[in-house]
UniProtKB/TrEMBL annotation:
<dbReference type="GO" id="GO:0008173">
    <property type="term" value="F:RNA methyltransferase activity"/>
</dbReference>
<dbReference type="InterPro" id="IPR006027">
    <property type="entry name" value="NusB_RsmB_TIM44"/>
</dbReference>
<dbReference type="InterPro" id="IPR001678">
    <property type="entry name" value="MeTrfase_RsmB-F_NOP2_dom"/>
</dbReference>
<comment type="function">
    <text>May act as RNA methyltransferase.</text>
</comment>
<dbReference type="Pfam" id="PF01189">
    <property type="entry name" value="Methyltr_RsmB-F"/>
</dbReference>
<dbReference type="InterPro" id="IPR018314">
    <property type="entry name" value="RsmB/NOL1/NOP2-like_CS"/>
</dbReference>
<comment type="similarity">
    <text>Belongs to the class I-like SAM-binding methyltransferase superfamily. RsmB/NOP family.</text>
</comment>
<feature type="binding site">
    <location>
        <position position="316"/>
    </location>
    <ligand>
        <name>S-adenosyl-L-methionine</name>
    </ligand>
</feature>
<feature type="domain" description="SAM-dependent MTase RsmB/NOP-type">
    <location>
        <begin position="184"/>
        <end position="474"/>
    </location>
</feature>
<dbReference type="InterPro" id="IPR029063">
    <property type="entry name" value="SAM-dependent_MTases_sf"/>
</dbReference>
<dbReference type="InterPro" id="IPR049560">
    <property type="entry name" value="MeTrfase_RsmB-F_NOP2_cat"/>
</dbReference>
<dbReference type="InterPro" id="IPR023267">
    <property type="entry name" value="RCMT"/>
</dbReference>
<feature type="binding site">
    <location>
        <position position="342"/>
    </location>
    <ligand>
        <name>S-adenosyl-L-methionine</name>
    </ligand>
</feature>
<keyword id="KW-0489">Methyltransferase</keyword>
<protein>
    <submittedName>
        <fullName>rRNA cytosine-C5-methyltransferase</fullName>
    </submittedName>
</protein>
<feature type="active site" description="Nucleophile">
    <location>
        <position position="412"/>
    </location>
</feature>
<dbReference type="GO" id="GO:0006355">
    <property type="term" value="P:regulation of DNA-templated transcription"/>
</dbReference>
């Protein structure tokens, strides 16, 4: 192989994503380990693979202007070489001749000499302008078609730009949405750092800070790891801490912090659960995570519950993910149980749980920064399919909660059809539920809008765009 190992690893990642629907964040680290790339090559491979996947919308628009036939008619291998080349030319400091020559070499290895000549000609055209100049040439006029412009400039599918804009407008107001949409899309294109969650009773934020992490912005459990592999930390290896976005921590902490009501329907004053009996239907003794896999939030809740004498039942549909939950809960003291079950047809009795988390399967449009290829895989039809499931899960979660019990409805998507509209629809059909103002249970977190639900944003909070609605059975 004449292509250098970093570019080859990036190319093979793009191919695995295209051919096998692989996830880049799973494939690439394995490739880097198997091929023993050194730290420098590993960093370059990661930058190239993630950058080309994320920037596909922009790069394809530019490449389409440089290729004499529709991109769909190119060999998919050659198109991936071109995307990698475009990323190097337009978004890195790699010298243009190195970007072009290495891409030509890669095309020769991946395809044939004819393809290599074509890659050479196309990338030389790409190299004539910088990114902003190209966007001005190939994107729609921002005044006439701001969504279309942003879709090309910030490399998001147009329907995703539209959905994010709608959600920003609903939560922050029309003017703020207009002012902030570009920042939000830009934040989606920045790789997030590693955030750790110290599991209460097992690890403190301070311990992680001593190991070189920085304290989280808002959650007392959160710590940011500016560099290095989290797996080098003993607390992570032993499961006393986990890798978890701060937004995910905040919504789990909010569920644990809000007061449950008495069975009669009155709110228990600051019901901390201290002295809880531990019996089914007891005051604050039995918690449920309805969609628990792979177990990040379940581990946080189980750790908090263990401190208060509450036990957690963690349900998960997919058996292999239920096994991951079991593993995540193993280091946590206290009593908890993992069940492989369909949350829409729960195998437990109604009206028993004091606190219920439903962290519903969703499009993940709030976590685009973590999964570089996911924005291109999702389709508008996914939203309606998932919304139907989300409504069933929320209804089942409410039925599982006892009168006075709390339900947190959570998604890592800000799409209105998966968030507010799910809650509105489900609540419209029943008179035994009240919605709480969730904002007081995220203390110190700014810019939470008008409530009662909470939508976090990468560009405002530095978290994934987690959604939270807090509900209580009457
Ligand atoms: C957003 S993820 C949950 C993430 C998890 N709470 C965490 O923090 O690690 C949603 C999970 O719901 C599971 N799921 C999908 N349909 C389900 C159903 N009908 N019942 C229970 N779990 C389901 C999926 O397999 C997936 O693991």
């Amino acid at each position: 192989m004449r292509t250098d190992p970093a570019r080859l690893a990036a190319y093979d990642t793009l191919r695995a994503v295209a051919e096998r629907e692989a996830y880049a964040n799973l494939v690439l680290p394995r490739l880097l380990t198997d091929r023993r790339l050194d730290a420098r090559d590993a960093a370059l491979a990661t930058e190239l693979a993630y950058g080309a996947l994320r920037g596909r919308g922009t790069y394809d628009a530019i490449l389409a202007a440089c290729v004499d036939r529709p991109l769909a008619q190119l060999d998919p291998e050659v198109l991936d070489v071109l995307r990698l080349g475009a990323h190097q030319l337009l978004a890195t400091r790699i010298p243009p001749h190195a970007a072009v020559d290495s891409s030509v070499e890669l095309a020769r290895e991946a395809s044939h000499d004819g393809a290599a000549r074509m890659v050479n000609a196309v990338l030389r055209k790409v190299a004539r302008r910088d990114l902003r100049e190209w966007v001005d040439v190939v994107a729609p006029d921002p005044q006439r078609d701001p969504e279309g412009y942003l879709a090309v400039y910030r490399s998001h599918p147009a329907w995703v730009v539209s959905a994010l804009w709608d959600s920003l407008a609903a939560h922050r107001g029309k003017e703020a949405a207009y002012a902030q949409i570009d920042k939000l899309l830009e934040a989606d294109n920045l790789r997030p750092g590693v955030t750790l969650a110290a599991r209460p009773g097992l690890c403190e934020q301070a311990e992680l800070v001593k190991q070189g992490a920085e304290p989280g912005r808002y959650a007392p459990t959160a710590a940011y790891l500016p560099e290095g592999d989290p797996a080098r930390l003993e607390a992570v290896v032993r499961g006393r801490a986990g890798v978890q976005d701060e937004g995910s921590q905040l919504v789990a902490l909010a569920l644990a912090a809000a007061p449950v009501g008495e069975r009669t329907g009155h709110t228990g004053a600051g019901a901390s659960g201290a002295g809880a009996s531990g019996e089914v239907g007891g005051r604050d003794a039995l918690w449920l995570d309805l969609c628990a896999g792979p177990g990040g939030k379940a581990a946080l809740l189980a750790a908090i519950g263990a401190q208060r004498g509450a036990r957690l039942v963690a349900a998960e549909l997919a058996p292999h993910r239920a096994r991951l939950v079991k593993r995540a809960l193993q280091p946590i003291h206290g009593v908890h149980k993992v069940v492989a079950a369909d949350g829409t047809r729960p195998p437990w009795r109604r009206d028993v749980f004091d606190r219920v988390l439903v962290d519903a399967p969703c499009t993940g449009l709030g976590a685009l920064r973590r999964r570089p290829e996911s924005r291109w895989r999702r389709e508008p039809a996914d939203v309606s399919r998932l919304a139907a499931l989300q409504k069933k899960l929320l209804a089942a979660a409410l039925d599982s909660a006892r009168p006075g019990g709390l339900v947190a409805y959570v998604t890592c998507s800000p799409h209105l059809a998966e968030t507010r509209l799910v809650v509105t629809d489900v609540l419209a059909g029943r008179d035994d539920v009240e919605q709480l103002d969730a904002r007081p249970y995220l203390p110190g977190v700014p810019e939470l809008g008008d409530g009662p639900d909470v939508q976090l944003w990468p560009h405002l909070h530095g978290t994934d765009a987690m959604y939270l609605a807090l509900l209580r059975r009457r």
